[in-house]
Each structure stands twice: as structure tokens, then as C-alpha cells.
């Protein structure tokens, strides 16, 4: 975290956004992606900064293997890089998401106003992680822009994302959903590693 903070102090945010390249993740990126995940995926959940649920440092071999598997199998796994990898995003298409979460549609308490026809074809943005202390520089938005371009090309019109509000609210994620003009579509309760999580389900149209 101290390294990231030093980088942030010595770089112009506007210049960094100009220099960053967003691309599909490759096998050789796994270690760098793991480092980004470790910076925000710890046992301590900082609501204002944003966080990943898992403690990635608790089992390096398992999480590195999981990252490699995602790189090899997922269609929408992106990184933002310049002199290093600063961020990544993992998104699932409908088939990939329901393979891992077969009861997801039934588990969500959908808003009465939500049009259920929008689940016919969709993408779920599962993880967006920016190197700790590098948030607020527009890096996540750059990756998001690339995802939107790819979805337009594939004529996929609906995006979902989950944001945890309990036991620790992810305020940074909530703010990002607002920034990207998502609408609340439902809520889901999830048991994960002995903890009950409350997830808000957000939706937006691909523009």
C-alpha cells in the first residue's frame, strides 16, 4: 500500500489515464493481478476505499490458480497497464455466471418495477479492483469503457453488478454504481465461508 501511495504522489492522474492501456488479461499477468487483488482483498474491509470480499493473502496458491483459470476461460477479463498493472476487471456472460451461480436468478429478490425480460441476455461485472491508494483517478472507468465497447459489438444490452452492503458496506462500489448510472434492480442474501452477505443487485443498459 505504501508503494502505491508513493506512485500516486509522483504521477499526474490525467497523464496516467492517457498512458494506460486496457486489454484482455493474459496468462503472464496472473502474478501482477494477484498483487492488485491482495492490495484491496485483505482481512480488513475499508468501506471508503472499496474492497474485495476474499483475503487473497490467506491462500496465495489457491487464488493465483483461480486467477489463471479466469484468464483462460472468461471472455471478459481485463487489465489496465502502463509500467505495471494498475487494475483489473472480471465480468461473466450469462452462461458463465449461471454455471457458477445456477440459482442466482431465483435467489434475487427482484424489484417489482424491474423488467424480467432483461435477464434473457446479460453480463455480470463480478470484480473491479484498482491498486490500493490509486482509486479516484478514473482507472476503473477506463476498463469499464472498454467493456462497454466490447458489449456493443456483441449486441449485449444488459449489465448487472452486485455491491455488498452487509456486514461491511462497500461505499466505493456504491459510488461507482451511481457514477455509471446503474439502477437498483434487487437484493440477494448469500452465505459465503460462514458469513451472511447482503448484496444489492444493480442493472444498467449498455449505452
What topology emerges from the helices and strands here?
Blueprint: H1 2-9, H2 13-19, E1 21-24, H3 30-40, H4 60-73, E2 76-81, E3 85-93, H5 94-100, H6 104-107, E4 109-110, E5 123-130, H7 139-154, E6 158-166, H8 171-179, E7 183-192, E8 195-205
Parallel strand pairs: 5-6
Antiparallel strand pairs: 1-2, 2-3, 3-5, 4-7, 6-8, 7-8
Notes on the structure:
With 207 residues, this protein is of the alpha+beta class. It has one domain: Gcn5-related N-acetyltransferase (GNAT) (Aminopeptidase), CATH 3.40.630. It is 37% helix and 29% strand. The chain is built from eight helices and eight strands; from the N terminus they run ααβααββααββαβαββ. It has an eight-stranded mixed sheet. Helix 7 (139-154) links the parallel strand 5 and strand 6. Helix 3 crosses helix 4 (60-73).
Computed over alpha carbons, the radius of gyration is 17 Å
Mean pLDDT value: 92
Per DSSP E runs of 2 or more residues, the count of β-strands stands at 8
Q: In order across it, which strands form the biggest sheet?
A: 1-2-3-5-6-8-7-4
Distance between the termini: 35 Å
The fraction of residues assigned to DSSP E strands is 25-35%
Assembly form of the protein: single chain
Query: What is the general shape?
Result: globular
- Number of separate domains: 1
The level 1 CATH classification is Alpha Beta
CATH homology-level superfamily: Gcn5-related N-acetyltransferase (GNAT)
Number of helices: 8
CATH architecture designation? 3-Layer(aba) Sandwich
Listing every helix as H and every strand as E from the N terminus to the C terminus, the arrangement reads HHEHHEEHHEEHEHEE
Amino acid at each position: 500500500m505504501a508503494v502505491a501511495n508513493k506512485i500516486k504522489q509522483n504521477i499526474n492522474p490525467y497523464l496516467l489515464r492517457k498512458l494506460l492501456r486496457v486489454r484482455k488479461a493474459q496468462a503472464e499477468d496472473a502474478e501482477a493481478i494477484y498483487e492488485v487483488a491482495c492490495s484491496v482483498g485483505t482481512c480488513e474491509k475499508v468501506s471508503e476505499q472499496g474492497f474485495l470480499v476474499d483475503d487473497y493473502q490467506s491462500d496465495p496458491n489457491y487464488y493465483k490458480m483461480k486467477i489463471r483459470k479466469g484468464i483462460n476461460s472468461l471472455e471478459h477479463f481485463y487489465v489496465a497497464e502502463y509500467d505495471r498493472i494498475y487494475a483489473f476487471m472480471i465480468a461473466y456472460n450469462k452462461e458463465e455466471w449461471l454455471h457458477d451461480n445456477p440459482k442466482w436468478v431465483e435467489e434475487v429478490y427482484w424489484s417489482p418495477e424491474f423488467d424480467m425480460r432483461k435477464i434473457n441476455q446479460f453480463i455480470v461485472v463480478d470484480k473491479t479492483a484498482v491498486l490500493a491508494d490509486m482509486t479516484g483517478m478514473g482507472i476503473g472507468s477506463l476498463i469499464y469503457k472498454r467493456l462497454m465497447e466490447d458489449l456493443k459489438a456483441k449486441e449485449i444490452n444488459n449489465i448487472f453488478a452486485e455491491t455488498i452492503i452487509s456486514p461491511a458496506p462497500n461505499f466505493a462500489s456504491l459510488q461507482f454504481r451511481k457514477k455509471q448510472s446503474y439502477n437498483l434492480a434487487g437484493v440477494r442474501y448469500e452465505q459465503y465461508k460462514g458469513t451472511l452477505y447482503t448484496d444489492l443487485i444493480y442493472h444498467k443498459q449498455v449505452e
